[in-house]
Fold this sequence. Notes:
The complex is a heterodimer of chains A (about 100) and B (about 260). With about 100 residues, chain A is mainly β. Chain A has strands at about 5, 10, 15-25, 45-50, 55-60, 70-75, 80-90, 95-105. The relative contact order of chain A is 0.33. Chain B has a single domain, classed as Cytochrome Bc1 Complex, Chain D, domain 2 (Orthogonal Bundle). In chain B, a hairpin with a 2-residue loop joins strand 3 and strand 4 (about 190).
Amino acid sequence: MAALINVPARANAGDIIEIRTLTSHIMETGFRHTADGKLVPRDIITNFTCRYNGVEIFRADLFPAIAANPYLSFFTVVNESGKFEFEWIGDNGYSTTASASITVE
Amino acid sequence: MMLWRAIVAAVLVGAAPALLAGEIASDARRSGYSFMGPDTRIMQDDDTSNPGMLFVLDGETSWGRTTGNANKACADCHGDAKTSMKGIAARYPAFDKTLGRPVTLDQRINLCRANHQQATPLPYESRDLLVLSAYVAHQSRGVAITAGDDPQLTPFVAQGHDLFMQREGQLNLACTNCHDDNFDKRLAGAPITQGQPTGYPLYRLEWQTLGSIERRLRSCMTGVRAQPFDYGSPELVALELYLMSRARGMPMETPAVRP
């Protein structure tokens, strides 16, 4: 599934940067019924993590009330060049990853 | 007698603009974008926060993937969509000589699948079809709409215009009653737009997904409590064609974001 990541390509050491992520997911709540009365099973992303050079810097739990294609934005302090790794985990064994690099001067 | 004729003629001339009051002057036309709040505008403008771009990305993958008995990908005939598809969506629905009627971009994709890829058609409003039409239409972003210029389309544009003016449903409303006569006012909390189809397929926050203009038209029809036309029906195609010709010259925004 596609994901859109916005991390600045370069920053100065000690800068606070904003990271924005958007990923494709239907986020089916599990509360809706079909026209013939059957419950549509829940299918959501339950967990998101961001690692910066292997160290976890951000984690979020997601719930049924969150809209489809969840958008998350957060801040971090950067001290060294490296890689941000993103992981979304969800129902029915759903798992997807993305990454972005940053050069810190 | 001459005087009476002059008076009748004057009344008729005076009445004529009132009969056509619906039409929006060319320079007064506005994209749905201008009716949105600042948050939704920012969402559309930034390609990393525009959820429609997720579909465009998937469309790019589909474009290069082989399918059907012919084992061909879109890219095998059309090459790089960034050059070959630029401006294409801006002139759709376009006249198809074999069928003798206009076809929408979605229908063109399915004709291509049937004739060249020997693949099954993709259902209307399915993700597989939407990602492809979004990817193709995205290549026309910023290009001025020219749909309906083909003289062979004239009767179909006229049919679409008639449908636009035709009252229907239990509320007995025509498209024109809201989108020509009352835009910029509100229907409950929501602004009434001019209905300019500049950004389709577009991401509606209400839908939580990308959708085609046909889905939008059908939900308007349900809104006036009329029986909506079926996906791909000649009436919906004619309406789409008329709306595109009505927006002639306005730039494409695909994938737009709407509330």
